[in-house]
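User: Hey, quick favor. My workstation is busy. Could you predict this chain's structure for me?
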Amino acid sequence: MTAPFALSTGEAHLVDLADPGEVARLERFAAHHPRATPFHRPAWFVSVARATGNRAMALVQERRGEIVAFLPLDMIHSPVFGRLLASSGFAVGGGLLTGDGADVPALFAALEELALRHSCPTIELRGGLLPQENARWSLKTESHCNFARALAADDEAQLTSVPRKQRAEVRKALAGDLEIEIGRSERDRSAHYAVFAESYRNLGTPVFPRALLDAVLDAFGDDADVLTVRHRQWPVASVITLYHRGAAMPYWGGGTREARQLRANDRMYYELMLHARRRGCSTFDFGRSKTGSGAYHFKRNWGFDPEPLTYATWTAPGAPRREADPTSSRLSLQIRLWQRLPLAVANRLGPLIARGIG
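Assistant: No problem, here it is.
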């Protein structure tokens, strides 16, 4: 079953994501498309929607029974930030994938119609083929950068590839009383979430529901795992990593207040680079960071060069622009207040808010 959109320039429709056969078609299309990311997979956008109480959608065009254009979407509702169509939700990548015969203007027209039908005043496309900037669409470049580079041939070469000052920090971390655990068990997941939740509270950011993280680990299977650094049995740093086409992509990570003194984050990422190579990966994709942020400079210190990203945002006629940027001055007071919350309170309230950030 599909939901058609009759357009003068072509036809687009929503795929029935309750049909396992249709979901499998989308997975195959993404698996063979050269520009696909993990965030194009139904394993991502369907799983995160279910875990957060939002709605997943897949907008496609077909020619002679074959998909020629595909846009994964999460329709996100927040009483704080409003309604949003994101490609993809809770992701740093996504966007439109096209093949031969795609009618791109018709697809974007269908996307705008879809947003209006569902009273979503905002669309965000995080990568993929983007529309041209016009009265409805705005493009933002260089607000975020991605960081990726090739992995070295062996452990020692990986260490020497790190710039001198950061390499000294890694050596100190290697000499510390730290233990590494890698897995997907309940022990790994609970340790990760404890660290992750504290890290987000310390940043002044509402933490995502644990169900979201579990859903991704379950859906990705062997293509995701958890690496945790422990000090005297206590988890102090932990990261969930996705594996995609030979690239290791650390995605949800963090550390406790003690992690900095212990250099646990330095140990975590170095060990993850070694683990990724042993898994057969050739690239370490450090992910995106806000330009000029602490995370941005941390990744540069590891010898990674920033690659500016471009995102597209559509705002419905007459609607205000959506504001969910944690670095905006309007949200700075809320961030400072959140940082002062007791951890138990932040962990209880955070998921209720974060599921609507997208």
